[in-house]
Amino acid sequence: MIMEIKKMDWVQEKEKWQPVIGLEIHVQLNTQSKMFSSESYHFGDEPNTHIGVVSTGQPGSLPTINRKAVEQTVLFGCAVQAKVSLMSHFDRKSYFYPDTPKNYQVTQFNCPLLREGHISCELNDGQTKHFKIHHAHLEEDSGVLKHFTHFSGVDYNRSGVPILEIVSEACLHSAQEAVAYAMAIKAIVEYLDISRGNMEEGCLRMDTNISVRRKETKELRNKIEIKNMTSFSYMETAITSEIERQIQFYSLHPEEEIESGTYRFEQGTKELVLMRTKEQAEDYRYFPEPDLPPIILTEKYIDSIRRLLPELPRDRHRRYLLELHLPRQATILLVNEKKLSDYFEEGLKECSQPRALANWLTVEFPGRLKELGKKIWSSGIPCKQIAELVNLIEQGRITGKIAKSIADEMVKEPGVPPEVLIQRNSLYQPVHDTAQVEQIIDRVLEKNPTSIADYLSGKKKAFSFLVGEVMKHSSGKAPPNLVNELLLKKIHNRTDFK
Fold it and tell me: Is 240's pLDDT higher than 80?
């Protein structure tokens, strides 16, 4: 099939199709207890040490609603301007699976807590996109199947943990848009402090529904669901691969239809593995949960939650661009990672050069810490000290070259202030002696009369060359501001070139 499709103009063929993508994002809420029982949950604890009669489905056990989970869901609804239902209720979703001990899941189907809503986010190309949320509802998480060489086991610690499932409209039309939307959701729940958002721990998991259609049509084809993705790059690869697979199929078999199904995506082979054919709602035998009362809210309660909203990612993004004048890419990197953004905010209290500080936090230090597998906010380096490093450059006390060397030392010895590192190592100590800098300038001017003449005739690059020569002869230790000032003065005071 691939050889056949290569005979066609593949680039032109792809342009004829529009991907249609919807995301279901499962956010694990950070409440102290489970959704319908009092047990706690901590990722990584010994299996089956956080279980109880409700989460394991013991006969006669009765659930109760976690008030904090409802509050966190309403807070999310306020953040995305969703309609909060004044009355909602829970349903039973019936299915058998080993990690679901009750043989049903308590969820919201007919009356979700949130309806509609929207998210705006910026793509890497600078475009601002607006995406719609269809609804969001509360439910309980399942346990975890663990497979070993000769047997499999079930860990029920996670069973019953509150999950906020956020279901988008089918309004995403590329893998890049899907990733931008998912990253925006992750940022919002982290800024609201309703989830850790740690994808490696399963705090945020994504299911994606993908179909394609001819651009001139509005009809939706059968969709393929890819389950439980916990990496943005993994999801982007999976979506891109599935879009191309569907376009290839329909281009060669225009009269046929792909059968709907639920799959997992194998990263190594870039192939889908069928988990089960797609169920319909009636297969789950939904009916109202008889052991739980409905959730009744008031407008007064919703308003009280709305007042708790902090600065949201979109607001911070706007502030960074319009007030701090940060570069677009640095803004995206900072805002999408709340811990990094909060770290940056701490540094701003000590630094008057936000652009320079942002560069050190998004480029310089991450490059040095990558091999160590560390993040800057957990490296042991206070952001105050990085701000001090930026200030030293701005004050002309050290050069950018020296600052890079000091940064290397800060990574090796976290917590040691840059001033201490400079004083401790004579190699980094800048030349503050004006007479010494003048001597270096005199030697450079003596050796480069042509460059002096070129500069005086209007060639600005000649001056940059002279500055570079002075910095080289001072081993990068001469303060740049002083070098520029003295060099200009000496050139214009010379009489042999006038």
Answer: yes
